[in-house]
């Protein structure tokens, strides 16, 4: 069965992004629907998949990472207002696959990829 997982790496410090708020939205016919909200643990990961085998459905989703708040809470120097406040990654998931979508972020840049 399919599932969606993620983790955050703070590339400015070279450490896991612990304490990043992540919101998962489903893009439905009637608009954007919040499906779950969580905060990364000390390893920069979520304690549970964002979508597990029971909730997983093929479709288009947005992962929203609150990196501006994270860097402010960790006293990392940023522009005012921050260059990056929320990073939104839109992905399309197919049936019965495991998708791992990491975020590597600094106050000035980010990247992602389909991990394993």
Which secondary structure elements does this structure contain, and how are they paired or packed?
Blueprint: E1 3-5, E2 8-10, E3 15-16, E4 21-28, E5 31-39, E6 59-65, H1 67-73, E7 87-93, E8 98-100, E9 103-105, E10 110-112
Walk me through this protein's architecture.
Strands 3-2-9-10 form a four-stranded mixed β-sheet, with no helix packed on it. It has a four-stranded antiparallel β-sheet with strand order 5-4-6-7, covered by helices on one side. The protein has one domain (3-112): Immunoglobulin-like, CATH 2.60.40. The mean pLDDT is 95. Helix content is 6%, strand content 41%. The relative contact order is 0.28. The chain is built from one helix and ten strands; from the N terminus they run ββββββαββββ. It is mainly β and 116 residues long.
Short description:
By secondary structure, the protein is mainly β. 6% of the residues lie in helices and 41% in strands. The strands form 3 sheets. It has a 4-stranded mixed beta sheet with strand order 3-2-9-10, with no helix packed on it.
């Amino acid at each position: 069965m399919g599932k969606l997982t993620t983790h955050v790496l703070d590339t400015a410090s070279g450490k896991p992004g612990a304490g990043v708020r992540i919101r998962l939205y489903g893009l439905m016919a009637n608009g954007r629907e919040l499906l779950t909200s969580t905060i990364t643990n000390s390893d920069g990961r979520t304690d549970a998949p964002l979508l597990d085998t029971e909730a997983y459905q093929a479709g288009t989703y947005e992962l929203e990472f609150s990196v501006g708040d994270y860097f402010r809470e960790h006293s990392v120097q940023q522009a005012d207002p921050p260059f990056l406040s929320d990073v939104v990654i839109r992905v399309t998931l197919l049936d019965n696959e495991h998708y791992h979508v990491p975020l590597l972020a600094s106050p000035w840049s980010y990247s992602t990829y389909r991990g394993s």
